[in-house]
Structure prediction request, 160 residues.
Amino acid sequence: MKAMQIVSFDGPASGLRYQEAPTPEPGPGEIAVDVDHAGVGYVEALFTEGLVPIDLPWTPGLEVSGRVRALGDGVDGYRVGDAVVALTITGGGGYGQVAVAPAELVVPLPAGLDPILAAAVPANSTTALVALEEIAHLRRGESVLVHAAAGGLGSQMGQV
Prediction:
């Protein structure tokens, strides 16, 4: 398969290369997705600068929409060809033609939701939910000031 991979820690302009990469296969409890769209975020730029420990070459991309390509052992409720959205944060891979994610981080693409928009939602939405509910313990009736609420994460904090 082809993938946009980080090949050096020289930043996004020099550290990324579109090249051949091994096609990932799903392990037990995982789903392989033929990627139609991938979310692009600031964190991928940080990966290209070596601020996150990864082995090179590495395929970034933490969220995708596409179609189920293959199911790992023990995965039920999906069929090959199903339209899905996946949070590929556990191993990246969204900038490849095929990405693999744990089945619990894959959901059916909701009817009527643009798959391009769907690919840009999982990472920021999950981060906002965890930050506000699990870390800050924000509850109904409480308020929080979100600076830069026009960005991806900030706008999702407003939605949460």
